[in-house]
């Protein structure tokens, strides 16, 4: 169980990834994303989750460089994730997309690069390209996102490198227990996107009342639950107060009853797209 914001989990290739990070989907390129990332690193965050599709890799890279300078951090103390977008899937196009992400971030390397969605008929070729950049040492770990068990089975039947991470929608109304157990069995670390249900879960009575026992908000209860069930979490905020609030979860522990109550909120409900039925 992580004890602070900088604590890491050892991925299947030995690379250490922070349990907690900042998501920047919908954070506007320019001042908004730069100030959010800098506020997060100032507050002690060490992991940032972006993607080519978020159109803010340049701002993320700029913020990372400025924050390293201002906070006396080395590059190896930070962990940067990006992802290849669907329209660039395929072998050559993914190799190019990786270089574009690296150039936009303007960093020496990327820590984790993910296949953003399991595009049918393409994701295995995309994976081969990720294996190549991984073997060349341009990225420290490679993984997937939005992969269901059958996608992973299919990928693993031919992959040389087992994905280090699978980043999926996961929150109290979509607890993903079957996928979590499957990934744990294969040494694939599960990571939660939209952990706060894009903000929709924060008035939930169960979460609010559990929070009251500990003097914590519903957001903090959810994020603590992620860590206690063994899932990396990357809540998004561009608001400094909420960036700090979301990370203030290392001074309390949810009881087994609380965990069971939160698990019991599952409805297999998605706020985002279904990985078996998306058209982008
Ligand atoms: N791989 C994928 O396909 C995929 C898909 C979606 C997301 N993601 C990643 O996962 C990250 C997180 O998911 P998400 O951005 O969809 O949703 P989220 O983190 O569940 O929720 C973000 C929303 O909640 C608000 N918020 C954050 N903290 C709050 C707090 N303490 N109190 C009240 N409101 C709060 C934010 O607003 P403010 O910013 O105004 O605070 C924002 O509107 C993304 O940024 C992205 O990095 C990945």
UniProtKB/TrEMBL annotation:
Substrate binds at residue 116. GO terms for molecular function: oxidoreductase activity, acting on the CH-OH group of donors, NAD or NADP as acceptor. PROSITE patterns: ALDOKETO_REDUCTASE_1, ALDOKETO_REDUCTASE_2, ALDOKETO_REDUCTASE_3. The keyword NADP applies. The active site is at residue 54. Keywords: NADP, Oxidoreductase. InterPro entries: AKR, AKR5G, Aldo/ket_reductase_CS, NAD(P)_OxRdtase_dom_sf, NADP_OxRdtase_dom. Pfam families: Aldo_ket_red. Residues 26-266 form the NADP-dependent oxidoreductase domain. It comes from the Bacteria. PANTHER family: 2,5-DIKETO-D-GLUCONIC ACID REDUCTASE (PTHR43827), NADP-DEPENDENT OXIDOREDUCTASE DOMAIN-CONTAINING PROTEIN (PTHR43827:SF3). This is Aldo/keto reductase. It comes from Paenibacillus faecis.
């Amino acid at each position: 169980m992580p004890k602070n914001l900088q604590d890491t989990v050892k991925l299947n290739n030995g690379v250490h990834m922070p349990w907690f990070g900042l998501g920047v989907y919908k954070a506007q390129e320019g001042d908004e994303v730069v100030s959010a990332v800098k506020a997060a690193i100032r507050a002690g965050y060490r992991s940032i989750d972006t993607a080519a599709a978020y159109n803010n890799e340049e701002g993320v890279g700029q913020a990372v460089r400025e924050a390293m300078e201002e906070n006396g951090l080395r590059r190896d103390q930070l962990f940067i994730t990006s992802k290849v977008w669907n329209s660039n899937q395929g072998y050559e196009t993914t190799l190019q997309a990786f270089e574009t992400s690296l150039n936009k971030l303007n960093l020496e390397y990327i820590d984790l690069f993910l296949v953003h969605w399991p595009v049918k008929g393409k994701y295995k070729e995309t994976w081969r390209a990720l294996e190549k950049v991984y073997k060349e040492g341009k990225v420290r770990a490679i993984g997937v996102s939005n992969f269901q068990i059958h996608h992973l089975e299919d990928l693993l039947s031919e992959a040389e490198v087992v994905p280090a991470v699978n980043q999926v929608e996961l929150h109290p109304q979509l607890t993903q227990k079957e996928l979590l157990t499957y990934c744990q069995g294969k040494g694939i670390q599960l990571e939660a996107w939209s952990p706060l249900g894009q903000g929709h879960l924060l008035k939930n009575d169960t979460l609010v009342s559990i929070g009251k026992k500990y003097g914590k908000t519903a957001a903090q209860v959810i994020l603590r639950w992620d860590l206690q069930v063994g899932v990396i979490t990357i809540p998004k905020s561009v608001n400094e107060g909420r960036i700090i609030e979301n990370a203030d979860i290392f001074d309390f522990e949810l009881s087994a009853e609380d965990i069971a109550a939160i698990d019991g909120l599952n409805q297999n409900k998605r706020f985002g797209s279904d990985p078996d039925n998306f058209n982008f």
